[in-house]
C-alpha cells in the first residue's frame, strides 16, 4: 500500500510561521484570561457517545466522528445489525459538553463560581472550506455557578481585553447579542406553539445563508402556517438599529400587549438584563455591542443571552457563546447556572496569516551562517558567541551557509529573522 504524504481531508499540517503566531496568541489567551481568574483544565478528545448524542448540539450532532467498539465487543455488535450498536464513543464536537461532564464529576472539589479555561482540538465531519476544518482548536472560557449577569459581563470584558491585546481591534471587531428567551417570545407572538421553538430557530439560524425568503420557504416546507411565518418575519423589520437599547425596546414594544402567556418568559426582565449587560460592558471597555434579534447560535443548549463576535475581515463570526443553565442537569439532574464563549481561534489565525502578522517582540532573531570547511576551533568560537547572544534573550539560528545564500536568507526572513552574520572559514 502506497503511503500518502498529504493530510486527511479537512485536516492540515501547521508550518513554523503559523505555529509561531499560534503560540503567541495562545500565550496571550492564557495570560489575559488568567488575569480574569479563569483556571485551565483539560478534557479528553474522546467523549462517551451518549453525551455527544444528547440532542443539545442540533445539526452539529450529525457531524460527529463516531468511534467503533473494539475486539469482541465490535464483533458482537456487528451481529445485531444495528449501526448504533457499533459505536461507544466519539470525537468531541465542542468543549462545552466535556466541560459539563467534568464539572459534574468534580463539583465537590471546585470553588463556585468555577471559572474554567479550555484550549483543545475539536472535530466535526463538516465540508472543509476557508476558515473551516474538520479538526480545529477551540479556546473557551466558561463560568459555572454564576446566576447573575456578572457572568456575561466578565466574559465579554475578558474577551474584549484579549482581542485588543492581540491587536485584533484593528479589524473593528464587535459583538452581536440576543437572548434565547426573546426569541421564544417572538415565536409565541407569531402564533407558533412552544414545541415549535427549536424547529423555527434551527431554520432562522440559516438566515445569513438563505435570507428571509429562504427561511419562509423552509418553514412552509415544514408545514407551518404562512400567516404565522409572515407575522414572525415582520418582527425583524427596522429592529436592528445601531443603538442597541433602542433596538431592544423597539422589539419589546412590538410584542407587549399580546396574551398574558407571553409574559411567562418575563420579557421585561429579560430585556432589562440584556441592556444592563450592554451598558456595563461598553462603559468599561471601548467596544461596540449590537442587538441582533436574528441571532440564534446553532446549539440547542443555550437558555439565555447569546453573543457572537463579528469583524470586518470575516463574513461570518469569529467567536460566540452564551448561557446554558440546563446543560449540567443532563448529568446530575440539577440545574447549574453556566455560560461561556469561544473565540474563533482558527479564523483569527487565518486572518493574521493573510495579513502577514508580525509578532510584537523586543527579541532579535539572528542567523549565523558558517562557511563549509571551517576549522573546529573557529567553529567553537562561533557557537560560543551564539550562546552569549542567546543568554541575552535573543534567538540565534546556526546553519551551514548554502550555495544560494540569497534564497537561504529569504526563507529565514519568512520566519522573522532580520539579522544575518556570515562566518568565513
In short:
The chain is α/β, with parallel strands linked by helices. The protein is built from 15 helices and 14 strands. The strands form three sheets. Strands 1-5-6-11-10-9-7-8 form an eight-stranded mixed beta sheet, sandwiched between helices. Strands 2-4-3 form a three-stranded antiparallel beta sheet. A three-stranded parallel beta sheet has the order 13-12-14, covered by helices on one side.
Describe the structure.
With 425 residues, this protein is of the alpha/beta class. The protein folds into 2 domains: 16-354, Bira Bifunctional Protein, Domain 2 (BirA Bifunctional Protein, domain 2); 365-423, no CATH class. The chain contains 15 helices and 14 strands. The protein has helices at 16-35, 49-52, 71-80, 96-106, 150-165, 180-189, 197-204, 207-221, 226-234, 244-255, 267-284, 329-332, 345-354, 376-391, 405-414; strands spanning 39-41, 46-48, 66-68, 87-91, 114-123, 135-144, 174-179, 288-291, 305-311, 314-323, 338-343, 365-370, 395-400, 419-423. The strands form 3 sheets. The chain has an 8-stranded mixed beta sheet, with helices on both faces. A 3-stranded antiparallel beta sheet has the order 2-4-3. A 3-stranded parallel beta sheet has the order 13-12-14, covered by helices on one side. The chain is globular and about 90 Å long. The mean pLDDT is 89.
Number of individual domains = 2
Number of distinct helices? 15
Low-pLDDT residue intervals, each spanning 5 or more residues: none
The CATH class of the largest domain, by name, is: Alpha Beta
CATH evolutionary superfamily of the largest domain: Bira Bifunctional Protein, Domain 2
CATH fold annotation of the largest domain: BirA Bifunctional Protein, domain 2
- Count of DSSP E strands? 14
Taking all Cα atoms into account, the compactness measure Rg is 26 Å
N-to-C CA distance? 47 Å
- The CATH architecture of the largest domain would be 2-Layer Sandwich
Characterize the largest beta sheet: strand count, sense, and whether it forms a barrel: 8 strands, mixed
Kindly report the average pLDDT value: 89
- Which descriptor suits the 3D outline? globular
Helix content: 40-55%
Amino acid at each position: 500500500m502506497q503511503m500518502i504524504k498529504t493530510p486527511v481531508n479537512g485536516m492540515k499540517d501547521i508550518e513554523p510561521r503559523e505555529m509561531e503566531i499560534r503560540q503567541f496568541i495562545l500565550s496571550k489567551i492564557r495570560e489575559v484570561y488568567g488575569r480574569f481568574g479563569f483556571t485551565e483544565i483539560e478534557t479528553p478528545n474522546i467523549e462517551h457517545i451518549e453525551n455527544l448524542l444528547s440532542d443539545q448540539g442540533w445539526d452539529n450532532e450529525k457531524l460527529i466522528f463516531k468511534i467503533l467498539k473494539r475486539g469482541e465487543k465490535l464483533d458482537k455488535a456487528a451481529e445485531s445489525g444495528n449501526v448504533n450498536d457499533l459505536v461507544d464513543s466519539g470525537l468531541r464536537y465542542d468543549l462545552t459538553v466535556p466541560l459539563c461532564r467534568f464539572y459534574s464529576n468534580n463539583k465537590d472539589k471546585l470553588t463556585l463560581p468555577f471559572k474554567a479555561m479550555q484550549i483543545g482540538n475539536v472535530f466535526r465531519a463538516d465540508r472543509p472550506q476557508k476558515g473551516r476544518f474538520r479538526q480545529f482548536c477551540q479556546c473557551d472560557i466558561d463560568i459555572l455557578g454564576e446566576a447573575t449577569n456578572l457572568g456575561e459581563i466578565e466574559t465579554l470584558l475578558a474577551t474584549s481585553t484579549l482581542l485588543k491585546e492581540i491587536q485584533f481591534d484593528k479589524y473593528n471587531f464587535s459583538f452581536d447579542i440576543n437572548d434565547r428567551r426573546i426569541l421564544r417570545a417572538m415565536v409565541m407572538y407569531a402564533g407558533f406553539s412552544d414545541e415549535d421553538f427549536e424547529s423555527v430557530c434551527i431554520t432562522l439560524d440559516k438566515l445569513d445563508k438563505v435570507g428571509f425568503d429562504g427561511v419562509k420557504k423552509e418553514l412552509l416546507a415544514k408545514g407551518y402556517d404562512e400567516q404565522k411565518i409572515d407575522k414572525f418575519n415582520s418582527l425583524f423589520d427596522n429592529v436592528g438599529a445601531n443603538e442597541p437599547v433602542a433596538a431592544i425596546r423597539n422589539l419589546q414594544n412590538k410584542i407587549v400587549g399580546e396574551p398574558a402567556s407571553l409574559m411567562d418568559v418575563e420579557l421585561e426582565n429579560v430585556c432589562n438584563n440584556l441592556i444592563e449587560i450592554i451598558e456595563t460592558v461598553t462603559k468599561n471597555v471601548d467596544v461596540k455591542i449590537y442587538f441582533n434579534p436574528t441571532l440564534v447560535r446553532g446549539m440547542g443548549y443555550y437558555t439565555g443571552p447569546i453573543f457572537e463576535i463579528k469583524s470586518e475581515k470575516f463574513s461570518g463570526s469569529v467567536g460566540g457563546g452564551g448561557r446554558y443553565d440546563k446543560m449540567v442537569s443532563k448529568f446530575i439532574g440539577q440545574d447549574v447556572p453556566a455560560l461561556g464563549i469561544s473565540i474563533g481561534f482558527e479564523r483569527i489565525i487565518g486572518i493574521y496569516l493573510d495579513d502577514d502578522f508580525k509578532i510584537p517582540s523586543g527579541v532579535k532573531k539572528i542567523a549565523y551562517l558558517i562557511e563549509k570547511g571551517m576549522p573546529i576551533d573557529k567553529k567553537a568560537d562561533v557557537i560560543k558567541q551564539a550562546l552569549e547572544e542567546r543568554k541575552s534573550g535573543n534567538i540565534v539560528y546556526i546553519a551551514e551557509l548554502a550555495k544560494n545564500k540569497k534564497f537561504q536568507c529569504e526563507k529565514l526572513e519568512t520566519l522573522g529573522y532580520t539579522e544575518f552574520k556570515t562566518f568565513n572559514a
